[in-house]
Design goal:
This is DinB-like domain-containing protein. The structure is a single chain. With about 160 residues, the protein is an all-alpha fold. The protein has a single domain, classed as dinb family like domain (Four Helix Bundle (Hemerythrin (Met), subunit A)), CATH 1.20.120. Helix content is about 70%, strand content about 0%. It is globular, with a radius of gyration of 17 Å. The mean pLDDT is about 95.
Length: about 160
């Protein structure tokens, strides 16, 4: 996938995620579980942290270094997600939203530094077997879409329930 297409897809899915949040009150975003014990705020914090990790990995790749924790086992991902939740759950909604928007802007700036060849050539970077765009997709628009669907399902269920 070329850079222009990748960036377009990242923008489009982030817009869909933001649309899924429209009309939610701060209380709905912070007090009501959506997936397990995670609230909307917890989901957004999760996305911001993972994008921050991607930004760090892109910086390391750009420097010719192999990012640590590039490929985690499912158990390692679960443990990391649990740690992220514990570390982020008490942060104010305003800070989480600022992080979500800030990491998004940082990511877009970081992506500008990569060429189409950087993004599409398998094996171009140490520790990365496939093309870089696949890693970026999994931590941006695919990840946003996964959790957007969670939020949309939760909202639809609330609309269908008494008092929702």
């Amino acid at each position: 996938m070329d850079k222009a297409t990748l960036i377009r897809r990242i923008h489009e899915e982030r817009e869909r995620l933001l649309q899924a949040l429209e009309g939610l009150s701060p209380e709905e975003m912070t007090d009501v579980p959506v997936v397990g014990e995670w609230t909307v705020k917890d989901i957004l914090a999760h996305l911001a942290v993972w994008q921050g990790r991607l930004i760090t990995a892109l910086f390391q790749l750009e420097q010719g270094r192999r990012p640590k924790d590039l490929e985690l086992s499912p158990a390692e991902v679960d443990a990391l997600n649990a740690r992220i939740y514990r570390e982020q759950k008490d942060r104010p909604l305003e800070r989480v939203l600022a992080d979500l928007h800030g990491t998004f802007q940082q990511l877009l700036r970081r992506l500008e530094r990569f060429s189409d060849a950087d993004l599409t050539q398998p094996g171009r970077f140490p520790g990365l077997a496939g093309p870089l765009w696949e890693l970026i997709a999994s931590e941006t628009y695919e990840h946003d879409a996964e959790h957007r669907v969670d939020i949309e399902r939760w909202r639809a269920a609330r609309r269908g329930s008494p008092g929702g």
